[in-house]
Amino acid sequence: MRINVVFKACVSGLFIVNTSMMKSNFYHLITPAAMNAIDHAAAQSGIDSFGLMQQAGQAVSAAALRLYPQAERIVVLCGPGNNGGDGYIAAQALHGCGVTVCAFHLGNPQQLKGDAVKAFGSYCGPLQDLADYTPKYGDVVIDALFGAGLGRDLDKAVIDVIAQVTKANVPVIAVDLPSGLDGLTGQPRPVAFRAVHTVTFMARKPGHVLMPGRQLCGTLNVYDIGIPHRILKQHSGTLALNTPVIWGDNLPGLSGASHKFTRGHLTVFSGPMHATGAARLAAMAGLRAGAGLATLASSADALMVNACHATAVMVKQVDDLSSVEDYLRDQRLGAFVLGPGFGVGEKARAFALALRTRMLVLDADGISSFKDQSQVLFDHFSGDPVRLVLTPHEGEFNRLFPDIAADRTIGKIDKAKAAAQRANAALVYKGADTVIASPDGRAVVNTNAPAWLATAGSGDVLAGIIGGLLAQGMPAFEAAAAGVYLHGEAGLRAGEGLTAEDLVLAVKPHQADTES
Predict the structure, then answer these.
(1) 149 within 8 A of 35, measured Cβ to Cβ
(2) What is the spatial distance between Cα 320 and Cα 318, in angstroms, rounded to a whole number?
(3) Are 62 and 86 in contact (CB under 8 A)?
(4) Between the CA atoms of 110, 111, 113 and 117, what dihedral angle is there, to the nearest 10 degrees?
(5) Which residues contact 380 (CB under 8 A, 6 or more apart)?
(6) Torsions phi, psi for 471 (to 5 deg)
(7) Cα–Cα distance, 295 to 316 (Å, whole number)
(8) Contact 290, 472 (CB under 8 A)
(9) Nearest Cα residue to 428 out of 439, 416, 441
(10) pLDDT confidence band for 16 (50 / 70 / 90)
(11) Could you count the other beta carbons within 10 Å of the beta carbon of residue 95?
(12) Backbone phi, then psi, for 9, in 5-degree steps?
């Protein structure tokens, strides 16, 4: 109870903590390199960099008091750089509030530089070497060893501490990013703290949203420590969270003059008689995404199966390449989905290449059909505008881009960007941390998808949503990003235990909050 009272006094009088969240419309993901440039630009503009460090450290101490007022001891692990400086500020703030606190330093604190030296000098509580830390019952750890800028594997001494803390099940509050986590890729190097809460500053970093980093961060708060947003935007680049801010202006709208022919026509190619369900899911999703018409292009053997199950979706017999070319004489047919349940092989390749002048979502079997022949696909869809959307999961990505997939020096975002540029396609690199990339270098990371979307048919629905948006005239990248987001929203709306049929019925594209 004493600490609760002290906490209220601290945040209201003894020191001031700016705990305001970043404005929700700042959607950029800031890479560690860009964050360094932002810090430098802020200092060059005349902003007191040590004042920023004080804001950061005090925000961390406030989070610790709010989350763990019952802590018997708060242990602050301080690294050899500015992240450690944030830790010393937090430790002093806690010490000044009467909390039992001890700082443990990595390396020689006398060798600290810049603002970190001032932060260390301001701390007047207990101090020990990191190697002397043994977790105790009642401890809460503030991890201020390394932030998002870690670019190497951890030393054994730090790995050992992480192992001890993890084994003791001591709660960890991470400063900027759990130590050991690569801020650019979200991958441990080779291990990282598992935080219950992470406090970062000004903007999310890629490591906060990519897996497994997203899970290792616990709950995340982004605190505005006072760097002007104009400076952030100057260095933000083309990487962002996937929100309606990215594509909302391109989202198809309805008016009193709208009718089915103004809303576009989506065609989905069906698989054989025993594998028609995936295409029907995609076609229905396309209609739910706003397309005015949807047609299942079906071989003769599957025609009656599809006709018996389809109501709002039309059925057209398309057996071979010749019938595809005949079907394409209708120039109103602008968007196609090929792959769900279609089958792998020459037929899929021939159909896909025949669609090179139309907007195409190539999914599932369509992607796998181009294993070892990917360049043929890419050559056919070269040039402007971008007409191809690829939607691979991990295995399909490996088949289409084996060399990029095997490159361990880059993370998922850079892999997606490299693949999009090579293919001249909007690329949806699926997973719990789906990355959508454009050939022009733009990329977004999606975070709104619930875990229960991992169910049979979910990917078919996604392909259909994207196809439906393409049919209405959205550009490839914007349609892909919007489709992934709307797919996630539909999953949240349908709820845990959903089936793909439930998911289709939950798609509501025109309810996207374009102000977020």
Answers:
(1) yes
(2) 6
(3) no
(4) -10
(5) 352, 353, 356
(6) -60, -30
(7) 7
(8) yes
(9) 416
(10) very low
(11) 20
(12) -65, -40
Instruction: Please state whether beta strands 73-78 and 139-144 pair in parallel, antiparallel, or not at all (unpaired).
Output: parallel
**Both structure tokens of 367:** 């992607």
**pLDDT given for residue 310 in this prediction:** 85
CA–CA dist 389, 337 (Å, integer): 9
> Which pLDDT does position 256 carry in this prediction?
65
What is the rounded distance in angstroms from the CA atom of residue 340 to the CA atom of residue 352? 13
CB-based contact 351:338 (threshold 8 Å) = yes
Q: Which two tokens stand for residue 449?
A: 């998808």
| Three-state secondary structure of 78-140 | ECCCHHHHHHHHHHHHHHHCCCCEEEEECCCHHHCCCHHHHHHHHCCCCEEEHHHCCCCCCEE
pLDDT greater than 90 at residue 467:
yes
260 pLDDT band, cuts 50/70/90, is low
Angstrom distance (rounded) from CA 85 to CA 122: 10
Residue 364, SS3 per DSSP: coil
Q: How far is CA 251 from CA 165, 318, 454, 473, in A?
A: 48, 31, 26, 9
Q: Identify the helix (H) or strand (E) that includes residue 212.
A: none
CA dist 280 and 494 (Å) reads: 19
Number of CB atoms found within 10 A of residue 379's CB? 12
Strand stretches in 202-346, DSSP E: 219-223, 239-241, 265-269, 293-298, 314-317, 335-338
CB atoms within 10 A of CB 1: 7
Q: Assess contact for 344 and 351: CB atoms under 8 A.
A: no
Q: How far is CA 52 from CA 25, 76, 226, 264, in A?
A: 22, 19, 7, 52
The structure tokens listed for 320 are 């071979």
Pairing type for strands 127-129 and 139-144 reads unpaired
- With H, G, I as helix, E, B as strand and everything else as coil, classify residue 410: coil
Q: Phi and psi of 254, rounded to 5°?
A: -115, 150
pLDDT band at 199 (very low <50, low <70, confident <90, very high): very high
- How large is the average pLDDT for residues 148-155? 92
Maximum distance among all alpha carbons in the chain? 82
Summarize pLDDT for 214-248 with one digit per residue, the tens.
999 999 999 999 999 999 999 999 999 999 999 99
pLDDT at 1 over 90: no
Q: For residues 358 and 448, what is the distance between their CA atoms, to the nearest angstrom? A: 30
- Is omega for the bond preceding 32 within 30 degrees of 0, making it cis? no
pLDDT tens digits along 469-505:
999 999 999 999 999 999 999 999 999 999 999 999 9
* Cα distance between residue 191 and residue 153, in whole Å: 8
Domains and CATH numbers, the chain: 2-237 (3.40.50.10260), 260-504 (3.40.1190.20)
